[in-house]
Design brief:
Number of strands: 0
Shape: elongated
Order of helices and strands: HHH
Radius of gyration: 20 Å
Oligomer: single chain
Mean pLDDT: 75
Strand content: under 5%
Length: about 120
């Protein structure tokens, strides 16, 4: 039976992962603009800009996650248990980024206040 030990590289990778997750969560937040009686509606250009910001932030987070995943795979050094855990972590991280992109984009739909169909 092989005893799995934690290498300093793996600890460092986990610390980087935690920092990346916090950064991704903070980066993917969209600020909603609410309709107001005293402020005119902003139009669809602002909503389109918000959607672009959501997509750009998600792509940046995916690139960072991809880099982290590559580094973690290399740090696993062919350890099959480590590789399986890293793959599961990576898939969960990508799913979380995609989910946050949707949350951000949903916030954008409340911007603009267009009058189509009214």
């Amino acid at each position: 039976m092989r005893l799995i030990t934690h290498h300093p590289r793996r600890r460092r990778s986990l610390a980087i992962l935690a920092a990346a997750a916090v950064l991704a969560a903070a980066t993917l937040q969209c600020r909603m603009v609410t309709d107001s009686v005293v402020r005119p509606l902003q139009g669809s250009a602002q909503a389109a800009s918000c959607l672009k910001a959501c997509n750009d932030a998600a792509q940046d987070a995916i690139r960072a996650e991809s880099d982290l995943h590559k580094a973690n795979v290399q740090a696993c050094d062919s350890d099959t248990t480590c590789l399986a855990q890293e793959e599961a972590r990576h898939e969960a991280a990508i799913a979380a980024i995609q989910n946050q992109r949707k949350v951000c984009q949903n916030g954008c739909h409340h911007q603009g206040g267009g009058g189509a169909g009214r």
